[in-house]
Amino acid sequence: MSSKEARLQLEQDYVDLCVQERESQRFSQQNLSADIAQSLARPIKTWTGEVSPKLRYLGEPSDEICFGFVSDNVLGKRYIGKYLVTGPGQDGILVSSWKSPIGAKYYKSNIGNRFGLTGKCLLVHSIPNVLANFEETIFEDLASNVMNLTREPETEVSDSVLFELEKSSTGSLREIIKTIHASQFEIISCKREGLHIVQGAPGTGKTVVGVHRASWLLHPGNDSDLQAEKVLIIGPNISFIRYIEKVLPGLGDDQVAHRDITSIGADVRPTRIENIELSRVKSDLRMSQLLTQGLRDRLRLPEQNFVINIQAISKTVEINIEDLRLKLDEFRQNQLSYANARSSLRMWLANTSNDLLRNQYISANPGVTRGFPFARETDLESATEKIWPSTSPAAFLREFFSSQNRIVTAGVNLDFSVRELLMLVREPSDQIGNEQWSLSDIALLDYLEGQISGGSGKYDYIIVDEVQDLTPMQLLSVKRKSATGDILLLGDLAQSTGQHLYGGWNSIAEILGTPIARLDELKFGYRVPKQIFDYAARVLTYIDSTLKSPSLVRKSAESPRLLSYPIFHDMAVSLCQELLTRAPRQDLVGIIIADDQVVALANMFTKEGIAFNLLPDVGLGVGINLVPVSKQKGLEFDEVYVLDPANILNLESVGLRHLYVALSRALRSMTIMCIGEPPFQIVEERKSETLGLDSVGIQLGREIHDGTSGSDGSLMRDILGYLSIKGISLGDLLREISRYLKEQTK
Question: How much is the pLDDT for 408?
Answer without folding.
Answer: 96
